[in-house]
UniProtKB/TrEMBL annotation:
Protein name according to UniProt: Cytochrome P450, family 2, subfamily J, polypeptide 2
Cofactor(s) annotated in UniProt: heme
UniProt keyword list: Heme, Iron, Membrane, Metal-binding, Monooxygenase, Oxidoreductase, Signal
Gene Ontology cellular component terms for the protein in this record: cytoplasm; membrane
GO biological process: organic acid metabolic process; xenobiotic metabolic process
Domain of life: Eukaryota
Chain sites annotated for binding heme: C409
Lineage of source species: Eukaryota, Metazoa, Chordata, Craniata, Vertebrata
UniProt record similarity statement: Belongs to the cytochrome P450 family.
Molecular function in Gene Ontology: heme binding; iron ion binding; oxidoreductase activity, acting on paired donors, with incorporation or reduction of molecular oxygen, reduced flavin or flavoprotein as one donor, and incorporation of one atom of oxygen
Length: 466
């Protein structure tokens, strides 16, 4: 039964509620059909749990920005609570989340300054990528593993102070672990586990998520133990050292602990790898199939960088077209399609509807990223969506792939820097060609916590200007 003045929605089935709407072949299409029937704020039942789905920029801004504190709670997804840990992405809106969010942001920011800056780290990693691409010049390559390695190494350097060769088996296992976990999250089995407690003891595929988490846990714990042996207090080399320094200062009220450290490592690694990698994969899928857009990027890059050794993040201010292309890629990629599930922290209202405390909140990101009336070309891949009449870069308010408000993506700054430096460096040096025998490109995404382009190959050619 829907409470009084609760957002409307479809009738719910016994036991399963409206789970079928979210676990079908095309859940995003289902959510869109429900939006057309019930409006921008509607409700579903996941099992017996009520959830409110938010669509469109108006409702999203009211919930995530204007009433941020009311909507910033988290429905700890129980699939991920059960052994061994749960993490900040799902952490509730309280002092532990607040203290750790502040610490994580400050630590990421500190690594962005000074000699060993974030920009240097990304460029260091790019040297390895370029080596792989140089070896493949004139040939065809499958970029999935490569882009995951790039993103994983950037975040590994920050967290653990190490990078891994692209054929390193231990890191392949880790990347596989995160890619799979991201598919399990928001997937049918995780939802069934969360919504229907009766099934939890059955040997169903959600058990795989526990195994994957244990794999990461033992990896992270052994990194923390190595750091405890080799660190010099007060001279942090990476995130783990910074956290251990913080633990040394710990007082009774502090929420910092070794268990929390492992949770933070999980969060940052999970959230920082698959998202960036899949956005890069989407970028090159579109660029290969829109060669005129790829060429226009390359003209701008050549003109702005001239004989300069390497691109800097500051250069983006002189590259409106490149900026527009990267933002357009993020818009169509819809990389985190349902954001992270939130819940209301108190009884509140949204667009006139009453929403009680503890209600699950689902942000339907595509409803904003492709909202009619917000974009010049909502349903096409067209960088003009981010350019004004003078060809200057503009960012419409409906561009919110990182969500918005107090829980906005913590890695947005890092992700934006990675996307820009990696795309520009690679486009400057190579031409990326859709292989002749590859058939028509398939732009449909494989859904999960992150959405992924289907596997594809790319032909690499050194550009004649290089
Ligand atoms: C293109 C890349 C990325 C996209 C599209 C993306 C998107 C998102 C989204 C939609 C959320 C949920 C916000 C909410 O709860 O409403 C999120 C949360 C988060 N992201 Fe990202 N992200 C990206 C890259 C990264 C990177 C590189 C990091 C690592 C530093 C990161 C770390 C996090 C963390 C820790 C959270 C949880 C924040 C919190 O609950 O306080 N993300 N991200």
């Amino acid at each position: 039964r829907r409470p009084k003045n609760f957002p409307p929605g479809p009738p719910a089935w016994p036991v399963l509620g409206n789970l079928v709407h979210l676990t079908s072949e095309d859940p995003l299409m289902n959510l869109e059909k429900l939006r057309q029937s019930y409006g921008n704020v509607y409700s579903l039942f996941l099992g017996s749990k009520p959830a409110v789905v938010i669509n469109g920029v108006e409702a999203m801004k009211e919930a995530m920005v204007t009433k941020a504190a009311d909507f910033a709670g988290s429905t700890v997804q129980e699939t991920f609570v059960t052994p061994p840990l749960w993490c900040t992405i799902m952490a509730d809106y309280g002092s532990t989340w607040r203290e750790h969010r502040r610490f994580n942001l400050m630590t990421l920011r500190n690594f962005g300054l000074g000699k060993n800056s974030m920009e240097d780290r990304i460029h260091e990693e790019l040297q390895h990528t370029v080596k792989i691409l140089d070896q493949s010049a004139g040939e065809t390559l499958s970029p999935q593993v490569m882009f995951h390695n790039v993103a994983s190494n950037v975040i590994c350097k920050i967290l653990f102070g190490t990078r891994h060769e692209y054929d390193d088996e231990s890191i392949k296992v880790m990347i596989q672990c995160f890619t799979e976990l991201n598919k399990v999250a928001n997937g049918p089995w995780a939802m069934l586990y969360d919504s229907v407690p009766l099934v939890r003891f059955l040997p169903l595929p959600f058990r795989r998520a526990f195994k994957l988490m244990e794999t990461f846990l033992s990896f992270a714990v052994s990194r923390v133990n190595e750091h405890k042996e080799s660190r010099i207090p007060g001279e942090p080399r990476d995130f783990i050292d910074c956290y251990l320094d913080e633990l040394d200062k710990k007082n009774d009220e502090s929420s910092f602990s070794e268990e929390q450290l492992v949770r933070q490592l999980f969060d940052l690694y999970l959230a920082g790898t698959d998202t960036t990698a899949n956005t890069l994969l989407t970028a090159f899928l579109y660029l290969m199939n829109h060669p005129q857009i790829q060429e226009r990027c390359q003209q701008e890059i050549d003109q702005v960088l001239g004989g300069k050794d390497r691109v800097t993040f500051e250069d983006r201010h002189n590259m409106p077209y490149m900026q527009a292309v990267i933002h357009e890629v993020q818009r169509v990629a819809n990389t985190v399609p349902l954001s992270a599930f939130h819940c209301t922290t108190r009884d509140t209202e949204l667009l006139g509807y009453s929403i009680p405390k503890g209600t699950m909140i689902i942000q339907n990101m595509i409803s904003v990223l492709k909202e009619e009336g917000q974009w010049k070309f909502p349903h096409d891949f067209n960088p003009e969506n981010f350019l004004d009449e003078q060809g200057e870069f503009v960012k419409p308010e409906a561009f919110m792939p990182f969500s918005a408000g107090s829980r906005v993506c913590l890695g947005e700054g890092l992700a934006r820097m990675e996307l820009f430096l990696i795309t520009v460096t690679l486009l400057r040096k190579y031409k990326f060609i859709w292989p002749e025998d590859a058939g028509e490109p398939d732009y449909t995404m494989v859904l999960g916590g992150t959405s992924t382009p289907k596997l594809y190959s790319m032909k690499i050619q050194l550009r004649s200007t290089q």
